[in-house]
Amino acid sequence: MTGNGDEGIQKLLKAVMPPVDPDLRRDLWPAMLRRLERPGTSVPWYDWALITALGCWLVFFPEGIVHLLYQL
Amino acid sequence: MDLLKRFQQGDADAFEKLFRQFQAEVYGWIIPIVRDAGVAEDLTIETFWRIYKARARFDSDTAFGAWAHRIARNLAIDHIRRRRREEELSEQSLMIAMPDSALRRETREKIHYAFRQLPRKLQAAAILALVDERPYQEIADLLGASVGAIRTRVFRAVRQLRKQLERMGVKP
């Protein structure tokens, strides 16, 4: 019941969205254990360099923030 | 010592107990939003991973469920945003998603496209209200918003969808 009286949109969405099973069908603990055992990921040095360069660029060219936000 | 205190102090058995106690519930919060069992399982694990990492900051006097729910909800909604950007809805998933074979493929694609253009919060509210037909109160609890906000999101979703579909030549 939408309360919007727009059954047309509702009908179209129902036609393209499959129903989902709300129940979990397997125990996820083994997968959780694998996740816990995986070594933590560290940020590589070149990512830090890129972030630093980006920060400097935004300091000198603040109008670039708009372009950056558009890309995000 | 109670379970939450033990978990907070890094007790692995306590974490396993909490995981087993809450995994189905966390999955149940995520699946109606992401609508993909594999993704929901991954995000359930990611939720617990974040809970585990942040255990030292957890206040054991507060409700574990509410904390887990907040993390799970944010992950699920973030996933919608990523999926929208990356357009992960492949041609194949569209075909699987199509129980009504009478609807033409082109029309289905247009409906999916229009839906993906909605902001992620509108997508989540629209799916839960229009497709799953859940009560507004339940959607509000699931998405951590007021009933009024959910009504507004569904209304806006319907309005935007109708406009977009009409522009593309689909009559709702």
Write a concise synopsis of the structure shown.
Chain A has 72 residues and is mainly alpha-helical. Helices cover 60% and strands 0% of the residues of chain A.
Please tell me about this protein's structure:
The complex is a heterodimer of chains A (72) and B (172). Helix content of chain A is 60%, strand content 0%. With 72 residues, chain A is mainly alpha-helical. The longest helix of chain A is centred in the last third of the chain and has 16 residues. The two termini of chain A are 35 Å apart. By secondary structure, chain B is an all-alpha fold. Chain B has 2 domains: 88 residues, Rna Polymerase Sigma Factor, Chain: A (Orthogonal Bundle), CATH 1.10.1740; 83 residues, Winged helix-like DNA-binding domain superfamily/Winged helix DNA-binding domain (Arc Repressor Mutant, subunit A, Orthogonal Bundle), CATH 1.10.10.10. In chain B, 74% of the residues lie in helices and 0% in strands. Chain B has 9 helices and no strands. In chain B, helix 3 packs across helix 4 and helix 7 packs across helix 9. The longest helix of chain B has 23 residues. About 5% of the residues of chain B have low confidence.
Topology of this protein?
The complex is a heterodimer of chains A (72) and B (172).
Chain A: H1 7-16, H2 29-37, H3 45-60, H4 64-71
Chain B: H1 3-8, H2 12-34, H3 37-53, H4 64-86, H5 91-96, H6 105-116, H7 120-131, H8 136-143, H9 147-167
Helix pairs in contact in B: 2-3, 2-4, 3-4, 4-7, 6-9, 7-9, 8-9
